[in-house]
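The instructor's notes for this session suggest beginning with a concrete chain rather than abstract definitions. Hand out the sequence below and ask the class to guess, before any prediction is shown, which regions might be ordered.
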Amino acid sequence: MSLTISYDPQNIFAQIIRGDAPCYRLYEDDDVLAFLDLFPQSFGHALVIPKRSAACNILDVDSEALCKVMAVVQKLTRVIVDELQPDGVQIAQFNGAPAGQTVFHIHVHIVPRYAGEGLGVHAAGKAEPAELEKLQARLVEAIARSGI
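After discussion, reveal the predicted structure:
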């Protein structure tokens, strides 16, 4: 798959934005949506996407949408770090299938990293819904306390 593909409005993230597919929502405003990854690489793995941009990757997205996404990435990362106390945090954004992109709607990964734990392979295993619900409630409460 090339870096210059056409945007598919039926991709899973577009479906989530439209409300046609569910997600474990953490944060939403008019421009940005953040939710838990169903196939997490670590505990607390979240995704942040623009809602109004039909962009496949960083080469397609307009600067204003990208800036709004990154502002939320920074704020949400602070909340995740404060609440989950990881030893590190990885911020990742992939462009094109050879780079590891699997959903062709631009998105940013927030991946907490814990000492002594290797990074799981993305999409190797689906998280348990009950665990995602508990984590979602915990993080939504922490986000509300933070005021973002």
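Then share the key points. The chain has one domain: 12-146. The domain at 12-146 is CATH 3.30.428.10 (HIT family, subunit A).
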